[in-house]
Design goal:
Strand content: under 5%
Number of strands: 2
Radius of gyration: 18 Å
Shape: elongated
Order of helices and strands: HHHHHHEEH
Distance between the termini: 29 Å
Number of helices: 7
Helix content: 55-70%
CATH topology: Four Helix Bundle (Hemerythrin (Met), subunit A)
């Protein structure tokens, strides 16, 4: 499928509602459970999404539009949420994420990005040259991948409870 900014922003606009429906008011067992080891819980995912709203997607889009490849993006700390979210409830994180996403989508709309601008390039610190189109497409897919991750982690909390039906539930495999 070819990238379309309107479709991507539609996904981005829906993410807070999706996570609100899934997590708001849920018992802690559902929001802080993970898959073991260094895996993330839905709570951790919320913190990660917030950090991305603050430091990743829109700041990088602005760098591409203003400076192109002349200035590399700041490296993204994929684990900053562990410190930044400490002491906050999942509902507080949901509120913060929704507010930031609303602000960022309004700012994105105000940029009035043209098809030609989608081809402008920036410099990712690890990946090298990337386009604005690729950055914005990744933002939408990043959301969807973390929604899938959160639901998978929640499913795994009942991995044993489902008994023999586990064989029919590939998400638990």
């Amino acid at each position: 499928m070819e990238f379309q900014l309107e479709q991507a922003t539609n996904i981005l606009r829906r993410t807070p509602d999706t996570l609100n429906s899934l997590l708001r008011g849920a018992p802690a067992e559902w929001t802080i459970g993970n898959e073991g080891g260094d895996t993330w819980s839905p709570y951790d995912i919320l913190g990660h999404l917030i950090h991305g709203e603050e430091t990743d997607w829109l700041p990088r889009a602005k760098i591409i539009l203003r400076l192109g490849e002349s200035r590399a993006f700041e490296p993204f700390d994929r684990f900053a949420q562990f410190e930044k979210s400490r002491g906050k409830s999942a509902d507080e994180l949901l509120d913060k994420f929704e507010a930031l996403r609303t602000e960022n989508l309004a700012a994105l709309r105000q940029m009035n990005i043209t098809p030609d601008q989608l081809e402008l390039r920036g410099t990712h610190p690890e990946l090298g040259s990337v386009t604005l189109r690729e950055l914005l497409a990744t933002w939408a897919v990043h959301d969807l991948s973390h929604i899938a991750q959160a639901t998978r982690v929640m499913c795994k909390q009942y991995s044993e409870a489902v008994g023999p039906w586990k064989q029919y539930l590939p998400i638990l495999g």
